[in-house]
Every structure is written in structure tokens, then in C-alpha cells.
Amino acid sequence: MSKPVIVTIAAVWHAEAAVWSGHGDEIPAAADAPTLDAPMAETVAVPLDA
Questions:
Q1: DSSP H/E element including 30
Q2: Which residues does 33 contact at the CB level (< 8 Å), separation at least 6?
């Protein structure tokens, strides 16, 4: 069983585009969506060995 990996994911509100933007430095992913839950779910779902 592999050990869990903890990464930091940031989310910021982009007022002009009216979307939340989520990204993490440790993983090759970024996501934008009108709700906070959507980009966080997409960013967390990316495998770290991708």
C-alpha cells in the first residue's frame, strides 16, 4: 500500500472571468470553473505520476 501524498492546492477567484482557478505546484494541472468545488475536484483527481 502506498503512502498518501500531501500537496498544496491554491484557489483564487478571477472576478473578470467569474471563475475559480485552482492549481498546485507539485502536480501538472490547473482548472477553472464557476464554483469552487469543480476546479478543486479536477486538480485533486490528477495522478501524481502523470
A1: strand 30-33
A2: 19, 20, 39, 42
Query: In angstroms, what CA-CA distances link 15 with 7, 10, 31, 33?
Result: 26, 16, 15, 12
Q: Residue 26 corresponds to which cell in the numbers above?
A: 507539485
pTM over 0.70: no
Which is higher by pLDDT, 43 or 16?
Answer: 16
SS3 19: strand
Which position has the higher pLDDT, 29 or 43? 29
Phi-psi region of 4 (alpha: psi -120 to 50; beta: other; left: phi over 0): beta
